[in-house]
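Exam revision sheet. Question 4 asks you to relate a sequence to its structure. Input first:
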Amino acid sequence: MELLLHILKVTLLILVVIAIFNVIIFVHELGHFFAAKWRGLVIDRFQIWFGRPIWKREINGVQYGMGWIPAGGFVALPQMAPMETIEGGYSRDEPLPRIKPLDKIIVAFAGPLFSMLLALACAILVWVFGKPADFIASTEIGYIDKDSPAAAAGLQVGDRIVAINGNQVDGFLGSLDSVTEQIILSEGKRIVFDVKRPGVEGMVKLDSGWETADSQWYQRSGLREVGIEPASESLVGEIIPGSPADKAGLQVGDLITHVDGMQLHSPGQLSQHLKEKDWGEVELTVSRGDRTLAVKVKPAAPVEPAGRDPMLGVRWAPGSEVDTTIIRPAPGKQVLDSLRMMYVTIVKVISPNSSIGVDHLSGPIGIAKAKFQLLQMEDGWRRVLAFMVLFNVNLAVLNMMPFPVLDGGHITLACLESVFRRPVKARFLEVLQMGFAIALICLMLYVTSKDIGDGFGHDEGPAEIRFAE
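Answer key, structure tokens:
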């Protein structure tokens, strides 16, 4: 029964993801449709989903239909540009009358406009119902990999990062101006940190290199990192039965503040200390309610799975440093933040000094996976609403780029037609659009292959661990 309920839940979430995706595309195409109606253009078809129609009906000369491929949709507007090769269309004995360039501009612009209006509508809902902040406000370093670029640069646990490459940071994770994002989006071969160090007056400036995680050819290339993690409490969330922690008397809810007299800034720092002591016995200072206890414990290797390093047998509680408070940002701010994120992404993709590339973009599968994961989280529906703001802004901006097939391409061609007083030759335009359509399809297939490839070769989560009794 439990398995059946899980299957039903996953199926329902998949259907919700598909429905959300189709609503987004439907609204975009509805903009083109209404504008074409307003300007008196001939409309061949208005179809939801692609492929041969499994249902169709003609009303007032317009064929409304539903394709068999459950993704997207289109409005066939033959007077905009020759798209029959791509979308299919009706054969005509006589050519259609030409339309004004202004009509083409209005109809093309209506799609991105409706996407932006949907983004604004979602932003208003986020403003009303709120969304989790998902933000780490502290910039304190809680862990440094001893073989990392950060360690080589002289960064220390307890340092508070103030700026990266001259840009002030507002937290460790969760915004474009946070530590993690500034490292990922940095350009050039070096990253300069301005840090505030305990016991040192003024600012300490440190110059660090960076590295990227290894990846396979079918996966996205790794993002920049320097080997640091944010400070967080070492709060016991679970004790594995029969483990050294269990035998030493540690309890769920215990807060480990020191190890061998050294203040702890994160669980990672504790793990590093255990390894440096060659898994010998350590003394933990534990805060339990209003009491402070000294607990001696020696790590041990589990019997299952075999081959793992010795461990205490503790699973840590979710980091209290992550702020999941429900916030209600103004709709305008949400849209502007999404526009800024889109701008930064485009700039970093085309920059030769950035590690962000085309392979870091997401296709339909990557977007669907993101929505699916968001829906499974606490307050998932709030997170999806916030994601829809970003996605619709992205859809509007990308469609406004001046490339054939895209709405921005139609606007560009209409502007050229207005200047030169004649449209681009139909045959040339058809070949041009087909070429860009093929290029766009190849790009989508490429990023989709990365969406799929990233699903392979990753850890499946914490394994079941058993210690000798």
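Marking note for examiners. The chain has three domains: 2-130+400-453, 141-230, 234-316.
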